[in-house]
Amino acid sequence: LRHLTTLENLPRETIERLLDRAESLRDACAHGTRKLDVLAGRTVLNLFFEPSTRTRTSFELAARRLGADVVNFDIGLSSTSKGEELFDTLHTLEAMHLDAIVVRHKRSGTPEELVRHAMSGVSVINAGDGNRAHPTQGLLDALTIRQHRPDFGNLTVVICGDIRHSRVARSDIDAFTALGVKEIRLCGPAELMPAAGDMPQGRRYDDFDQAIDGADAVIMLRLQKERMASIELPDEAAYFARYGLDRRRLALAAPGCLVMHPGPINRGIEIASDVADGAQSRILEQVGNGVFVRMAVLNEVLAR
Ligand code: CP
Question: Which of 103, 139, 257, 295 would staple 253 via disulfide (CB 3.0–4.6 Å)?
Answer without folding.
Answer: 257
